[in-house]
Structures are given as structure tokens and as C-alpha cells.
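Troubleshooting entry. The earlier prediction with 5'-O-[(L-methionyl)-sulphamoyl]adenosine gave an output that would not parse, so I re-checked the input for stray whitespace and re-submitted. Clean input:
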Amino acid sequence: MGKFYVTTPIYYVNDVPHIGHAYTTVAADALARYWKLKGEKVCFLTGTDEHGLKMQRAAQEKGITPQELADRNSEQFKRLWEKMNIGYDDFIRTTEERHMKTVSAFVDRLIKADDIYLGEYEDWYCVPDETYWTETQLLPGRLCPNCKRPVELLKEPSYFFRMSKYRDPLLKHLDLHPDFVQPEVRWNEVKSFVQGEIRDLSISRTTFDWGIPIPNAPGHVTYVWVDALLNYISALGWPDDPEGKFASFWPADVHLIGKDILRHHAVYWPCLLMAAGVPLPKTIFAHGWWTNECRKMSKSLHNFVDPNEMIDQFGLDAFRYFMMREVAFGQDGDFSVTAFKGRINSDLANDLGNLLSRVCGMISRYLDGKLQGAPDLQGIDRELEQGLATTDHEVELCFNKFTFHKALTVIWGFINQVNKYIDTTGPWTLAKDPAKKDRLLTVLFYSAASLRGIAILLWPFIPGSAEKIWEQIGLVPPLVGINRAEQMPFKTFAPKSLIKKAEPLFPRIEV
Ligand code: MSP
């Protein structure tokens, strides 16, 4: 049995969740569910990032303490993940004792390794991004090159991490591991960034106090990005590892992030880990950004796609499916309600939903809900089973490459093969002729067994609907914990209850 450790970014709690947060989290959930069903030992970590100047200011504006704001908003993320059927294994908050202990121990280790020194920071800082910039990196008008908002001049004593020392080792690591940063365009971006000058990183702030103190340095709190990145190992109990989690799960198999936080993950993080003598994560995968009806989402436009609203209006699994299917993971994409409705009606209601109701309806009508083996096998049946095996194999390749949109396309290829199989074999004609009973039994058995395979393949993406399919074809949920390899071959299909005409899985939406 192997292991799989997947993380999302930990989300800032100065604000409420939007589609950007939901997107990464659903992708991580799909990965975690996929490998869990394959029998791997999985850890799926998410959480909230609660320190920093941005949080302190947001709390001040609301007239409450930063801790109160963090408690309130962290809860909103947890509630959304519950509503979205996100099966995380751990939720880390950076204000938790277990996290703060790790940060202090880590910084202490860097101090002992002489990788930290006291200096003075004099440059620009973007508060919304909590990110440092040099004068030459700014956009005209002194704007942050990432979010294009005004930056602030900082001049304060600061501890620095000797990041420049790790430039060459990082370059070497990149060259030896072309999969370290994905997709490839992001690897190229990191490579060219690292080839330029890497300056030492200011890792402490003195002008506010909402952060984790630097050991033995009164007045200095840890830079929020150093604090935040360490969540990936604090949740595993580094350095003491009392439960053996760090030993079992580190290095991470993949950190899923958005492309805007690539530099923090693919430059700062590996340099920090190298300095502390901790192995580097295997992959950092940066996905693209969503626009809303072709417009950039922003606070001033009040146009963030609200996951709660989408789920209430269109249903959870439709929303999960759309996010994973509509855009190639790694590229930018547009959230359009017209496209969303189109996918619900064509992919979900037509292709998948109709297949299920057709098959269950015929089993109920022609066979009184009972399936009894496949007594008359023909070539087309074997082709169908082969189709599922090929699909299963291709889906695994997609999961290895994080191409979720492609995995769904491949699964839909099989759904269409089953639809075509039914059209070609014509159970409604077979049902009219008692001499063709064996053939009818076979065709409907194979159709339902295909639906079992489809439920298994779809469970990572739309777990609730997969469980419904499972139940409607006479099997007993939950899917989690099933022996996947045993449940794929058609001959092991054995419904436990009568199959009835099914409720529509995805009702059609008015366009
Ligand atoms: N707290 C940091 C992450 C620290 S991880 C050690 C942070 N938080 S965030 O809440 O601002 O951002 C969370 C994620 O949302 C980022 O991965 C970002 O890319 C993603 N998105 C924000 N807007 C987005 C879109 N419009 N589209 C897709 N994802 C976007 O950064």
C-alpha cells in the first residue's frame, strides 16, 4: 500500500470563501478520494491562514479582535466544506498551538544553522498579498505587480533568511525534477525567476503583533508567509512527530495552489526546507484563475462567484462537476452560467441521468427488478467490458497528471459507449420475444454493471451522485472502503436489492 499526501493552500480568513477557494479544494478532494478508493493511505489537508497585517487591519475595521475574526471566518470555511462534501482528513489553523510550536521550532532551527541574521528592511510591501517587492518590480504608479493595488513603503528592523544561499541548489533541483513544478509553463516561470537574482527574505515584522513571535527576539513576529507555508508540516506534527504522521506522509505528493502564489511555494518553501534539512515536496501544481462572465473577479466589482449560491441554485454535484470539467486544470477559465446550464443539461441530465433511468426502468419493467447473471454473451458485451477497463486505465493516467478535465472526458466517452450499446442491442425489442430472454438478461446485466463502474469512476468528482447510482442499481452504500479492483469486473456484479425505476439524478434546467 502506498501513501498520498495532498494539500490546498490555507485560506485567508479576512474574507468569506469564493469560487477560487472552492476550486482548489474540490480538486484536492477528487485526488484524495481517488487514491483512497484505490486503497492508498491518504492524508488530505486544508485549513486557514490567520495571522498577518491584513487580518489585524480587517479585525480593527470590524471592531473585534483578530482571533474573533479568525474564529468566525474559519468556521465559514469549515461549513462550506461540509456542504460541499469535502472529505478532508485534517483542518489546520495557524492560530492553533500545534502550528505555533512548529513555527517556533523551525525558525529556531534556522537560527542555529546560522541561516538567519538581523538587518533592516527598506522596500515595498503589498498588504492584500502579504508580499514584498523591490522598486524595480513594481508597476508604474507604485502598484503591486501581482494584484495591481498600491503598495506601502516599509522601513523596519527585520530578521532575514539567507535565501540567496539556496539559489544554486534550487536550480539544480529544478533541473533534476522537471515534475517539481507543474504544469510545464509554471516550471519555466520558476526556473527563469530563480535564474535571476534571489535576495535574502525578510522573515520578521515589528510594526504589528498579530503573528508568531520569533524566538528570543522581542517585538518581532514571523512573516505571515513563512508562518503559513509551515502548515504543511505542522499538521503532520513536525518536528516531534508524536503520532508518526510526518514519517508516514512527508514529503507531500502534491501541493495544489493557484498560479498567483507560485513564487511563495516554488521558491521560498523549498529554500526554507533545504535550510532546515527537510526533504522537498514532490510536486507543486499551480492551477489557473477563473473569471466571472469574462470579467476578472474583484472586491470592488462585487462579482466573486459565490459557491453557496451556485450550490443552492444548481445543486452541489453539478457545481463540482462543472468546475472540474469546464476548464483544463492549469489553465485560466471563465465561469459562465450559460455554459454551466449547458453542461448540466447535456452531460449530466442527458448522457448520465438518462442512462441511469433508462437502465433501471427497463430492469424494473422487463425483469421485475431482478438481474440474474449474463447467460448469453456476445462480442459487443465483451467490448463494453473492455471499454470500462480501458477507461479505468486512462483515468488513472489522468490522476497521475492532475488532468481532471480529461479524466471526465474519458469517463463520458464510456458513458456514451454504454448508451450506444443499449441503442444497438435494443432491450425493448428483445423483451418482446420470450426466446430472447437470455439475451435480454445479459444486456441489462451488462448495462447495470457498467453503471457500477461509472459510479466508481465518478465518486472522486461527484460523490453524492455516485452513491445514488450505487443505490439505484441495488448496491449498498457507502462506496468508501469497497475493494475497487474486485468491483470493476462485470462478473462480480451482484445487486443486493430489487432495482426500481430511478428518480432523475440531475433534473433538466430551464435555459
Ligand atoms: N493564505 C494564502 C495561501 C497560503 S498557503 C501556505 C492565500 N490565501 S487566499 O485565500 O488569498 O487564496 C487562496 C487561493 O485562492 C489561492 O490559491 C488563489 O490562487 C485562489 N484564487 C483566488 N482567486 C481565484 C480565482 N479567481 N480563480 C481561481 N483561483 C483563485 O493566498
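This one parsed fine. The radius of gyration is 26 Å.
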